[in-house]
Design brief:
Order of helices and strands: HEEEEEEH
Mean pLDDT: 93
Structural class: alpha+beta
Distance between the termini: 6 Å
Radius of gyration: 13 Å
Number of strands: 6
Length: about 110
């Protein structure tokens, strides 16, 4: 299992990458990041939240449609149930919840965990 400090550094890079993509997109999304929690505010007042979960070394996503857990596997952050990649899932969630089109680049994965 990846060391805690390495996991924190890796997930900081992932959250930064997502934030940069949100800034580059032409949409009405506001976002903030604080201590491993990225909160995306949609125009209707709803939120999509991406946060790191240290004990399981996962990234968790909470959206109106449900909660999702992502683990770095096979060179990508993959949903532990469906196998969907995190970037693809976030693009889908933001499109369905906020009507926003966001294109996320490949997200940093680091070493296999």
């Amino acid at each position: 299992m990846i060391e805690e400090s390495a996991f924190i550094a890796l997930t900081d890079r992932v959250l930064e990458t997502i934030g940069t993509a949100l800034d580059a997109a032409d949409n009405d999304l506001d976002w903030s990041e604080n201590d491993g929690v990225l909160t995306i505010e949609c125009a209707d007042g709803s939120r999509v939240i991406v946060n790191r979960h240290l004990p399981n070394r996962e990234l968790w996503v909470a959206a109106r449609s449900g909660g999702f857990h992502f683990r770095a596997e096979g060179g990508a952050w993959r949903d532990t149930r469906s196998g969907e990649e995190l970037a693809t899932a976030l693009e889908r969630l933001l499109r369905s919840q906020a009507g926003a089109v966001v294109r996320l680049p490949p997200l940093p994965v680091g070493k296999s965990m």
